[in-house]
Amino acid sequence: MLRTGRVADPNPADRAVAAYLGLAIGDALGSTVEFMTPREISAKYGVHQHLIGGGWLHLKPGQVTDDTTMALALGESILQQGKVDALAVAQAFDAWMRAKPVDIGNTVRRNLLQFRKTGTPAAPYSDHDAGNGAAMRLLPVALATFGQSEDAVRAASRAQAHVTHHSALSDAACECLIFMVQDALRGASKNDLLHHHAHPLAARHAEFKFRAVRQSQNPSGYIVDTIQAVFQSFFDTDDFRACLIDVVNRGGDADTTGAIAGMLAGALYGLESIPDAWLKTLDTQVRRACEAQANSLFQLPSPPSHAELSVD
Ligand code: MG
Ligand code: MG
Which ligand is nearest to the CA of 102? Predict the structure, then answer.
């Protein structure tokens, strides 16, 4: 059917594509101001709101960083295996690292080098590994496990996360984000996401309280700082563009807050909400890869459940 005008209620598959494009656009937008303070950003750009590249990585306009390219490596592994397989994910991340990405987080590098030595695709538990590196790339897991049981979703989340980040706070944030994305794809409202996911996360882990704390500025790569910034921007704005501009102008780990906020905002507001100017500037190959993976991951058949496997 010919589509005219705005689609008030896009279907979940469209929202899956919007979430993936949102991730990449948030990464590309935020990378310009990564590690800058809000004061430095406003002195240089006023309000930073265009995909102009640059930043400390000297990127081209619309170019993305590790947040998006690790997600694409994860998604490719899931599509090849038909499921989230920890060893295959670790191998995919290792291959990604060997290809010399534009940037790489310290925890990611350290634990992938450890994987090369041990062959074990799970980092040892460490409360110090509570960075945002597992959360920034988790979207393919959310799409591939859509409709699966809560236990299966949590297991898949941990399998991918623990390759580099094995920490209770990272796990809690990753699982919360995945369930938020999945409910947004089903058409949940922002208020639903607040009451069913964001507040319960803070109830279980008080670190994640984001309402009673002051305005998040210059958020670090610590998962708690990242989630507070993302949730403040996501829940206090009403469209995709406003959400992304709000979060990246906080500075700090802006490509990653942008990527996570973009994923949530894309899933919630849908394809029609993404500004054309941003979509057109996004690296064409990345845009195509995000669209193709979103469609394929979303259609991935569920692996047989334990009960089905036990029947011969
Ligand atoms: Mg990055
Ligand atoms: Mg970053």
Answer: 1
Contact 262, 242 (CB under 8 A): no
Amino acid, res. 305: S
Sketch out the chain's domains with CATH numbers. Answer: 12-300 (1.10.4080.10)
- Rounded to two decimals, the pTM is 0.94
For the chain, 312 residues long, give each residue's pLDDT as a single digit of tens. 333 334 455 599 999 999 999 999 999 999 999 999 999 999 999 999 999 999 999 999 999 999 999 999 999 999 999 999 999 999 999 999 999 999 999 999 999 999 999 999 999 999 999 999 999 999 999 999 999 999 999 999 999 999 999 999 999 999 999 999 999 999 999 999 999 999 999 999 999 999 866 788 999 999 999 999 999 999 999 999 999 999 999 999 999 999 999 999 999 999 999 999 999 999 999 999 999 999 999 999 877 654 444 444
Contact 29, 66 (CB under 8 A): no
CA–centroid distance, residue 255 to ligand 2 (Å): 5
